[in-house]
Amino acid sequence: MLNMTQITKTYVMGEEEQVVLNNINLTVNKGDFVAILGPSGSGKSTLMNIIGCLDSPTSGDYYLSNQKVDELDEASLAAIRNKEVGFIFQQFQLLPRLNAIQNVELPLVYARVQEKDRKQRAREMLGRVGLGEKLQNRPNQLSGGQQQRVAIARAMVTNPTILLADEPTGALDQKTGQQIMELFHELHEEGKTIIMITHDIEIAKNASRIVRILDGKLREEFTYV
């Protein structure tokens, strides 16, 4: 499903070249639940941006669903971001003036899905994450955990190939964060492929595979049963 070979990302700062990712090799199969674990500055956010087609590598090969991503133009990359990857962010990224169902249907608006169909799909997704009674609530009328559930429903509404979660519990208290992780487990058991970026080993242990990144290199990989 996802295959990265010798992915390198460098930035030129003045006369110096900074290597952020150094020959990354990563394979994610359908149905995997992978945590990419690393401290601030380790390169995990850059790796996440490349996985999500928000950034391009300096060198190396990246295939997603049999497409060579680093050769695609911007329009094709935008289509992949909309259809292949469902993004879940630490700060939820909900639009404050829109209610829950309107926030969830946004990716379908961009995909030009007809209104009746997209609203039905958004209702289904909100029901799936336990918010079937909160369709008309705006973000400021929801708790942090509920807002993250709306964000997860929005990420799932296009039935993406991969759910890509960036510190999904970082803005939540421990109890609420664990509830979100329980939802991730349910989605994984249903066959969803999840890649989660985190700095917290306890959160990472919720995944079935952990890849540790440090100083732009994948240092080790281990599996929890």
Automatic annotation (TrEMBL):
PANTHER family: CELL DIVISION ATP-BINDING PROTEIN FTSE, LIPOPROTEIN-RELEASING SYSTEM ATP-BINDING PROTEIN LOLD. CDD domains: ABC_MJ0796_LolCDE_FtsE (cd03255). GO terms for cellular component: membrane protein complex. Belongs to the ABC transporter superfamily. Residues 2-225 form the ABC transporter domain. This is ABC transporter ATP-binding protein. Keywords: ATP-binding, Nucleotide-binding, Transport. GO terms for molecular function: ATP binding; ATP hydrolysis activity; transmembrane transporter activity. InterPro entries: AAA+_ATPase, ABC_transporter-like_ATP-bd, ABC_transporter-like_CS, MacB-like_ATP-bd, P-loop_NTPase. It comes from the Bacteria. It comes from Neobacillus rhizophilus. Pfam families: ABC_tran (PF00005). PROSITE patterns: ABC_TRANSPORTER_1 (PS00211), ABC_TRANSPORTER_2 (PS50893).
